[in-house]
Write a structure and sequence with these properties.
- By secondary structure, the chain is of the alpha/beta class.
- It contains 17 helices and 18 strands.
- The protein folds into 2 domains: about 190 residues, Urease, subunit C, domain 1; about 270 residues, Metal-dependent hydrolases (TIM Barrel, Alpha-Beta Barrel), CATH 3.20.20.
- The strands form 3 sheets. Strands 1, 2, 3, 4, 5, 6, 14, 15, 16, 17 and 18 form an 11-stranded mixed beta sheet that branches. Strands 10-11-12-13 form a 4-stranded parallel beta sheet. A 3-stranded parallel beta sheet has the order 7-8-9.
- Helix 13 packs across helix 15.
- The longest helix has 21 residues.
- The radius of gyration is 23 Å and the shape is globular.
Length: about 500
């Protein structure tokens, strides 16, 4: 059996395993055995229906915060109902119940709209500095700038447990940081939800949905190509970019990745916004450091989402977007981590950096605003708002449940440490689960990893890994929950 067939079979088995798990051993499970945060009530046996699971909590919906609400997770991993707790309980009397009302917040998982998973195992290069004017300088060593070599990429290989362990660690790190979806090439099937264009036979099993995440849409050597134009010569004509016929998926390329004063970066922005005015597909713009207020007016008019990675922008260029100008012009903004060599190690850290940068610019980003940047806006940037990034009936149950001590519920989700994570579900399947919650919430064996509070369910065994071998293989990778060595989030003088 091929890896793609094996993954497909595992997904098909999930619904049955989930249902069986909720039935298993129910007679011996106490309704109060779930620990101090939540109360678990087992499902009632019925020959007619598969009961599913009701989760009661403060629920974060696109329409706003709803206390004392419930989400019903169907046996097939989708969301079946969202309403006040008593109504859902009455409509599904046989379902298992995890009642965390007043003690937890339930949110859709974050949608990380731009990452480079294959490379995102590595720490920042010792030569990383904010002195670059354009990405070509650090990529190619132009203008006497120090070249920053890209890390060795890791690609999923069913026969290579060490490589797969590195990719699993990367995806678990993002899960612990609140994400359930990552856009970018790389990753492994069956852990976090991956989004990328299908190009190879195994891709449908690895990438749950598609977006045209093009790294450099114009050229890999933009500064050289535009040298004469930027010196006052004629406008350079780039070759027709690949993928112009992929109008059925969102276009999410790197654009304007350099300082606002850099001619090449500015020229990229101008050309891309000309293209976006076709309105033939969803357009998003990654990084956009070299954008200004006139650009933001066009982005708002033509519905171009800004995918913002402030930490990586600052670490390389010493500046980031004019966040005040973007917000004042009504630009939709999605947060993303970029990659570990210069960006945040997870989405919660990216939100911390974004808030700090905005504050320095005189802008206050509320918890709800940041939460929207990390959820619904991320899904919108990828053209997938009808599938991910929200809690809504019919959508996959990609959910994060964190402890709630009475403060702002959005802040509870944004600021949660790994010890605050009660559960994370993807397709209704528990991937992370607090040891305080009932074992029946996961259909697979959950394993404790050193230094990590929630247990990891089913993931390691699927790749033939034990906790020990996983630790050995990933010793040199970015750790799962330690962010001390990520790039700084600091503006710098030029």
């Amino acid at each position: 059996m091929t890896s793609s067939h094996r993954t497909s079979a595992l997904r098909k088995l999930h619904c049955c395993l989930f249902a069986m798990t909720l039935y298993a051993g129910m007679a011996s499970i106490s309704a109060t055995a779930a620990g101090s945060e939540c109360e678990f009530t087992p499902a009632e046996k019925t020959d007619r229906f598969v009961p599913g699971l009701i989760v009661g909590a403060d629920v974060l919906l696109p329409e706003g915060h709803r206390p004392d609400h419930a989400v019903y997770i169907r046996f097939n991993g989708s969301i079946g109902a969202v309403a006040d707790f008593d109504s859902v309980r009455g409509d599904y009397p046989h379902a298992a119940v995890l009642d965390c009302r007043g003690k937890a917040v339930l949110s859709p998982g974050f949608v990380n709209a731009h990452e480079h998973p294959a490379y995102s195992w590595a720490f920042p290069d010792p030569n990383l500095n904010p002195g670059y004017d354009h990405r070509d300088e650090w990529r190619l060593g132009l203008n006497d700038k120090v070249k920053l070599p890209s890390p060795q990429p890791h690609r999923f290989d069913p026969e290579d447990p060490r490589t797969n362990a590195m990719l699993v660690a990367m995806e678990l790190r993002h899960l612990l940081g609140g994400a359930t979806t990552i856009a970018g090439s790389g990753g492994v099937p069956g852990v976090i939800r991956n989004v990328y264009r299908h190009k190879r036979r195994g891709d449908p099993a690895l990438y749950d949905a598609e977006a045209d995440v093009s790294t450099f849409p114009f050229s890999f050597r933009v500064m050289e190509d535009l040298n004469e134009e930027c010196a006052g010569g004629e406008r350079y004509r780039f070759p027709t970019p690949a993928g112009v016929d992929l109008t059925f998926m969102a276009y999410v390329p790197h654009i304007g990745e350099g300082r606002l004063s850099n001619c090449a970066a500015r020229a990229e922005v101008a050309r891309y916004l000309e293209r976006a005015q076709r309105r033939d597909r969803r357009y998003s713009l990654v990084h956009g450091v070299a954008t200004d207020r006139e650009d933001y007016a066009l982005m708002h008019e033509f519905d171009v989402t800004l995918v913002w990675s402030p930490r990586s922008n600052l670490a390389l260029y010493g500046e980031t977007v004019d966040i005040a100008g973007a917000l004042e012009n009504g630009v939709r903004i999605a947060l993303s981590t970029d990659w570990s060599p210069s960006g945040s190690f997870n989405m919660r850290e990216e939100a911390v950096c974004a808030r700090r940068v905005a504050k320095e610019a005189g802008v206050t980003l509320s918890g709800e605003t940041l939460w929207r940047m990390a959820t619904v806006n991320g899904a919108y940037a990828l053209g997938l708002e009808d599938r991910f990034g929200a809690i809504r009936p019919g959508l996959p149950a990609d959910l994060v449940l964190v402890k709630h001590t009475g403060r702002d519920p959005y802040e509870a989700v944004l600021e949660a440490a790994d010890r605050d994570i009660l559960a994370t579900w993807i397709d209704g399947r528990a991937i992370l689960r607090s040891a305080s919650l009932n074992e029946a919430l996961s259909d697979r064996t959950c394993v404790a990893l050193e230094g990590v509070a929630p247990e990891v369910c089913g993931v390691l065994a699927a790749f033939g890994l034990s906790a020990g071998t996983f630790g050995d293989y990933t010793r040199d990778a970015v750790p799962l929950n330690d962010t001390t060595l990520q790039a700084p989030c600091e503006t710098s003088p030029h």
